[in-house]
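Posting here for the record, re: zinc ion.
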Amino acid sequence: MFYPAPIERLIENLTKLPGIGRKTATRLAFFLLNARGSYITELSTSLIDIKEKIRLCSTCFNITDTDPCEVCRDGRRNRSTVCVVEESSHMMVIESSYPGCFRYHILHGVINPIEGIGPDEIRLKELRDRIEREDIKEVIIATNPNIEGNTTAHYIGEMLKPLDVKITRIASGVPVGGDIVYIDPLTIKSSLDNRKNL
Ligand SMILES: [Zn+2]
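Prediction output follows.
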């Protein structure tokens, strides 16, 4: 027993969303079926808009609806420091701790040979061009502290070595509020390697 074809098609499309199984998709489909027309129009327009209006900033590759993006246009930011992150969502996290401080460069991925992602597949060349073109004094590499993030950080370090720019890497170690008893040995090692004078 199937629902009428348009409802089945909607359920099928909703199950393609992450974390949505057929049961939830069916519940959502019936919610939408009973929703006001104005809500359906608003929802469809917002879906089309993210495809038509969202693009990448030609300077930092942040997702944006204007080019340059809001962050690149912000004249109050430190123009000599660029923080390199894997994704736009990572930039948002750093912004919540250091609002309005840095400029950014979004790589849109990390080097991952197992998945066939090499340096040319992410925005590394654009980073190098930018460091050569702009008056940047420091590059903070804020890729994740895992194998792929560290490989990418190392690659960036080598790539920018010939240029007159300071390269720093975010520290990794015991999380704030953490307990040493529950920390894995690799994180403990990293904390010791990155220890600071008191
Ligand atoms: Zn930008």
